[in-house]
Amino acid sequence: METIVSTNAMQVQTNEKNSAGVKNGFKQKIIIKLKVLRSKKTGGWYSAFLCLVNQGLATLAFFGVGVNLVLFLVRVLGQDNATAANNVSKWTGTVYLCSLLGAFISDSYWGRFLTCAIFQLILLLGLVIMSITSWIFLIKPNGCGDGILNCVPPSPLGTALFYLAIYLVALGYGGHQPTIATFGSDQFDEANPKEKISRAAYFGYFYFALNAGSLISNTILVYYEDGGKWTLGFWASTAAALLGLFIFLLGTPGYKYVKSFGNPLPRVAQVFVAAVRKWRVANVEGEELYEIVGSESSIKGTRKILHSNDFKKLDKAARVTEEDRQRPTFNPWRLCTITQVEEAKCIIRMCPIWLCTIMYSVIFTQMASLFVEQGEVMDATIGHFRLPAASMSAFDICSVLACTFLYRFMVVPLAGKISGNPKGLTELQRMGVGLVIGMLSMVAAGVTEIYRLKHVIPGKEASSLSIFWQIPQYILVGASEVFMYVGQLEFFNGQAPDGIKSLGSSLCMASMSLGNYVSSMLVNMVMTITARGERHGWIPENLNNGHIDRFYFLLFGLALVDLFAFVVFAKWYKGIQHEGSDESCTKDGEKDSQVLDKV
Questions:
Q1: Is 497 among the domain residues?
Q2: Which terminus of the chain is less hemmed in, N or C, by CB atoms within 10 Å?
Q3: What topology does it adopt in the membrane (predicted)?
Q4: How far apart are CA 484 and CA 436, in angstroms?
Q5: Is the full-model pTM beyond 0.90?
């Protein structure tokens, strides 16, 4: 009996040892797998490529709604040309204004990955509501809104749901775009020289992907929508957004993640408050200003920024006084670090450059409004086929795609040999060139309108002038985008401090936003001034009675004034310099001045 008991006890002990061994072995395997996962390289071109595909599909979905929106408002909701153009400008402006919200949340709280995912879900929700609303409430009878068959006036509920849907699309896409741009650039390490070059190339490919997506919207989707199949176009956009979200989430294990850095608003406010408190304190040299010890700045995870000599009054925020030394701990509303002060300076320095880009965005937004309305009253027939006016923007997209590669593989090497800059042209130089080309597009559009009016068919709204006369203005706008918008993305993302990178990328979209609002304001002002008494004004319901050519030339004149201001501020600008960085932004600024003097 005792033998049996002892044998059972031994078996129990053996089983316990085996069980413990299995558990330890299982734990060891998990630890090994975790180490392997941690040792695997994250980021790089594969992860960036997923971001590019995601951006292309999200853009396809967005422009499936946006590219023909002005015609939808006219044909389906029954709005006049001026009202429709203004509503599109306001909506587009809201899209890009939402980019500031997305960038702020990304940098401050959620991080870039989570922000991208949530705003894509909002975009998807808006597209679903848009598709269902047009199907059930707006497209009545079926096939209406094709320019021939009129739709039944929409119900208040249908109109309300439509506006809810398009503004959800605005919020979703607006918050997503600057965040995905920065998230994609995060996949490359700026400290690595090779990856730094890849990071610069990424922004060019990002704009390429954006236009590749919109090319499908502007050719295939716009064709079906123009033929009255609006609901089909909206459901196709919804499918593209869903596929884009799936591809984005597919890369989750391999992404390189950057944590949020906290709300930048208190950090910037602290600098101004501390500087005001020490307004009467004497200025000192940079070496005597306060900075924490170590490679990182006081903003955890960010690099230190070297001291600059402009805006010296703000340096007082980093001046250590006797009162500061007597305190047991430093009060951030009284004493700031050099990096914190320089972060505020960077924002101030970028503001004039950013303001000068708004006028270009006014030019750019004409492509989605007045260019389309102008094309609607031109001869768009090719045999028995009628080309949708909105599909002419395909020439803009093709111009962007072609000019992106021409710039990357021809202009950059040639300009690099001449200037000694491996980038070819600096970002500010590219932006200046883009503004000049944009101005030329307004001249081309104005000349086209003059000839269109000469070929008006008596008794009809249409002109016998071929719609292909619009090709030069679309090509010029496309070429200007490659210089202006890609230059903006690189400039604002590169010059923004580490703690507000997404906010830097969003400045490009915020410029588009204000450009749309300014365009809407200009249209209203022009119509108020020119449509007095019995005069029809420059942009009437029937464009044959107006003079949108004069509006185009007005934009050219305003852009010319803007160009002079841009050159002045570009020569004044001094770039950000991080501690331990081998790049000299000051030299780039000097090169900008030399080239801009010749513009």
A1: yes
A2: N
A3: Multi-pass membrane protein
A4: 10
A5: no
